[in-house]
Design brief:
single chain, globular, Helix-turn-helix domain-containing protein, alpha+beta, three-stranded antiparallel beta sheet, 48% helix
């Protein structure tokens, strides 16, 4: 992850979600695991222990589009 969230990326990492939502690390991973299990309200991809979240889907959820 870079120092600032790169809006040209196709997927967010857990650290990006943490910054965007203003959550702590543990709470971010709890949230992403819950969303991964349900695949709602947006899609979460899990690769081993890494989470990847499609930017377009997350942004739609976050901004209510």
């Amino acid at each position: 992850m870079t120092d600032s969230t790169d809006i040209s990326k196709k997927v967010y990492e857990a650290e990006d979600i943490q910054k965007l939502l203003g959550l702590g690390r543990s709470k971010t991973y709890e949230f992403l695991d819950e969303v991964f299990q349900k695949q709602e309200p947006f899609r979460v991809i899990k690769i081993g222990k890494l989470y990847r979240i499609p930017c377009v889907l997350f942004d739609r959820w976050l901004y209510g589009e």
